[in-house]
Design brief:
Elements lengths: L18 E5 L2 E5 L12 E5 L4 E5 L21 H9 L3 E7 L10 H8 L3 E3 L24 E2 L5 E4 L2 E7 L8 E5 L4 E5 L17 H12 L5 E4 L8 H24 L5 H8 L8 H17 L3 E4 L2 E4 L2
Parallel strand pairs: 4-5, 5-6, 6-7, 11-12
Antiparallel strand pairs: 1-2, 2-3, 3-4, 8-9, 9-10, 10-11, 13-14
Amino acid sequence: MDAVTDEKPWPDTIHAGECEQHEPLVRRVLAPNPSPYTFTGTQTWLVGAGRDVAVIDPGPTGSGMSIGDPPDANGTGHVDAILRAVEGRRVAAILCTHTHRDHSPAARPLKEATGAPIVGCAPLALSDDGPRADSAFDPDYAPDRVLADGERVAGDGWTLEAVATPGHTSNHLCFALVESGALFTGDHVMAWSTSVVSPPDGDMAAYMASLQKLYERDDRVYYPAHGPAVAKPKQLVRGMLGHRRQRERQILRELEQGVRVVPDMVSHMYKGLDPRLTGAAGRSVLAHLLDLEARGRVLRDGDAWSLAA
């Protein structure tokens, strides 16, 4: 389905706070915020094996936790876990892929603890009318430097390049690790689920264009903010593009059959869906409809939709 998946349980936080090595320049610290939208939790990525490191997506604090603010496996908070993982090294930069509350709020206390600048995506404070209480926007995000597409941040033995990927949010960035061919994909591409695209900030046309942009790259592996690493990026992205096009065709068939409102489309298109996830599925259907409207394929009358003549 388009928003999230409930085919697997969202695991407990037994590994939260532990630092795991994924390749010589890449380690992961898992935040203790598992949920239907975050899977095992937000994955904070540490880049660098020398004198300094970069921290990507420092994660949530307090109300950004989907299950409160629990301790991790070591009995402390997520920022403390990051500090343990970088002990002995300087934090050169704190990078955020986007400003949902399960990604960027911990940048502030981490900056206070280390003095490192916050860089990456642009600030965005938007009233989100979608269903994702765990991922509302972070209105207090204040970067020291905003990265444009192709701009770089470098440290001892590592270089990260910003790859603009709007769609999930308008300010979403991925970060390419030049030395190893890895791409940190935030919420844009995940192996366990497709991403929520929730208007008004989420934009399906932009999301599809960003997927195509990644498909044309030659990244070796993806490290998303939620779920496992992606060992075959092109294969996954090709499938995601096809899946979204299939959803669009389903919506057009629903309209052909006289189904006019989003809740009815969701009930027909997402059989057996966990009721907790119907709102998120509806947001993605709405994003498709708005894209179709912009292309002149459908018409809107209040909450009702129809095929264009």
